[in-house]
Design brief:
The chain is α/β, with parallel strands linked by helices and about 290 residues long. It is built from eleven helices and seven strands. The structure holds guanosine-5',3'-tetraphosphate (G4P).
Length: about 290
Amino acid sequence: MADSQKQSVQWFPGHMAKTRRKIKEILPLIDAVAEVVDARIPLSSRNPEIKELIENKPHIILLNKCDMADSAVTEEWIKFYKTQGITAIGIDCKSGKGLSSFKTTVKSVLADKLEAYAKKGMVGKPLRVMVVGIPNVGKSSFINRIAGGGKAKVENRPGVTRGNQWFTIDKQLELLDTPGVLWPKFEDQTVGEHLAFTGAVKDRILDVELLAMRLLECLSESYPELLENRYGELDFTLDSYDLLSLIGKKRGMVIRGGETDTERAANMLLEEYRNCKIGFISLERVKNNA
Ligand code: G4P
């Protein structure tokens, strides 16, 4: 793409100070952190400060929306996190797949703590897990699924800010929703694009054609066969604008003068990607620097 086309997107700056303070305040009261990320973009769908914010609390990563991701890539991420000492599980909050292993995962991650409780005769003390994640990764869907539609427990314990949302799952487990909003790394262009491809950030503030061209570049590199399965034979030597134009033409999106309506083609491509019509696609894979 020509430099002139690489229009950078203007993002709202993340206002993190308040959330940072709230998390710090709550940290001594929780036993572990469950971080929800989008399995298709596990890097971009994270808050860049999360590792630092949760200090050394046991950490579980929930690779959500795995129904839309490339399952082989999700498995690679699970293995990768294991090498980092983090337990990750793939979940799908639309169907509920994978959720049944959440409680056992929490217990196994906190096995030492449970043992210590048992030794002290503190049986029945619930484990407290804080659920964190940037907007749109499916945090509410996850909590609703796990809590089974149960009502949030209003809490006012010492040290706990009023308004924190605690959910009693059962006698052994309580969940706390993110106190505040955790933003992604908006200032990073790739992060912004990946969030926009998946629909986590609305297109209204973006140039749709430019976005579709960038998506085509990514898909041509990682999933050319899926693109051809969907749109027929393509010429990957074309630049992304011409490729978008070719796809539009194949779909009959021709306007007066024989030109392709590339804006329509762009909207179609983004929509078909988001609805998994092109396939189950992960845009971020494990690399050495992940
Ligand atoms: P948040 O609390 O982290 O902001 O996210 P939320 O649960 O509101 O989920 C954001 C969107 O992602 C919702 O779709 C939700 O249905 C969808 N979603 C959550 N988990 C999954 C999943 O595992 N798989 C799939 N395919 N989708 C998931 P929406 O279009 O905003 O709303 P709606 O379709 O539920 O009405």
